[in-house]
Automatic annotation (TrEMBL):
Keywords in alphabetical order: Carbohydrate metabolism, Glucose metabolism, NADP, Oxidoreductase
Protein name in the entry: Glucose-6-phosphate 1-dehydrogenase
Organism of derivation: Ceratodon purpureus (Fire moss)
Reactions performed catalytically: D-glucose 6-phosphate + NADP(+) = 6-phospho-D-glucono-1,5-lactone + NADPH + H(+)
Enzyme class at the top of the EC tree: oxidoreductase
Pfam family, one: G6PD_N
GO molecular function, a single term: NADP binding
NADP as UniProt keyword: yes
Amino acid sequence: METFLQSVYYESGGYSTCDGMSKLDSRLQELEGFGEANRIFYLSVPHEIVPDVSKCLSRDAQSKSGWTRLIVEKPFGSDTDSSAKLADCLLDHLDESQIYRIDHHLGKELIENLTVLRFSNLVFEPLWTRTYIKSVQVILAEDWGMEGRGGYFDQHGIIRDIVQSHLMQTIALFAMEPPVSLDGEDIRNEKVKVLRSMRQPCLQDFCLGQYKASISKDGKSRIRGYLEEPGVNPNSLTPTFVAGVLYIDNARWDGVPILVKAGYGLIKHKVEIRIQFHNVPGNLYREQIGYNMDMASNELIIAVQPEEAIYLKINNKVPGLGTQLDSSELNLLYRQKYDEEVIPDSYERLILDVITGDNHLFIRSDELKATWELLTPLLQEIEEQKVAPEMYTYGGRGPVGAYYLGAKHGVRWADE
């Protein structure tokens, strides 16, 4: 750490004009000397000034002897038009290859492992199709509230904050066709095809919720609801929970419901992908399983957080003289198999990818356009109709409407 800090410098300068970037460029040239030097700029700035900052950087602070790359944080716009405007501004001054739109969720170890799990294991790749998969669930649940983000969140809501980036990118990685190589552009080409094949979501297939106040588990304190959070409009209809059903209309996934669920103030923190397979046709053990055949369905669970793990649920005979079946789990728990210290932080992995030029976990302009074209009509309908979210208690399982939604599409949500 001490060695690293010796290479850290601070340069003061405003971003309202390009003077600060010229000053920064002069300082960098002093530090770089006369050898080849590459530059990465991480823009942790208000999103409305990203176009001006990128313009000044491209004009006054690009490397003269090496490459220059720009990391941009979300939000990447708030709808199709604003996202396109931001993308055009960036591309006016930089090449697509220089722009890295960062999403920390995509740097998680198990998200990175998605393509390895599928494309390097013969046992899974043939099953990755509508013939064997009944449904897919992509879940991102948080057990905390706004924690100071109320003002930002109230302007965006759960669909813009989590679904547009985190969940849509995860679905694209999960559902894509095998790329011709592991080159970042080849992978991103396949992700775009998935997004462009998705059916336009409709409001009837979505459930919105907003958490309300509750009492702490020890019964000694009151936990405030969303409308009481600092920076939140007390009459806000902004949802803090969303559950929805998406469909990919292509040969591989036609008819397979992909359920997404994301929310704050839920019972526990959980990020996972659950693949539920069809029941065995003419199952010989129907009598031992009972009427609810779904309970005996095989499932592949990719647990991203809080503990990295891969589970495969199978049906197994309980030892003994009778024939009693049990649903068991074959599990790969990362903390037991691997040294936890070798699992990198999301930003650690993603910033290293920027340094090496690996862009497959970063969002390209056409990917961004495809996701916003899917979600903007839905967002407009929600806002124009002033859809009131269903209230749910902080620390609970979310709105009851989410369970009706699952039943409507013949899917049971994962056990909490």
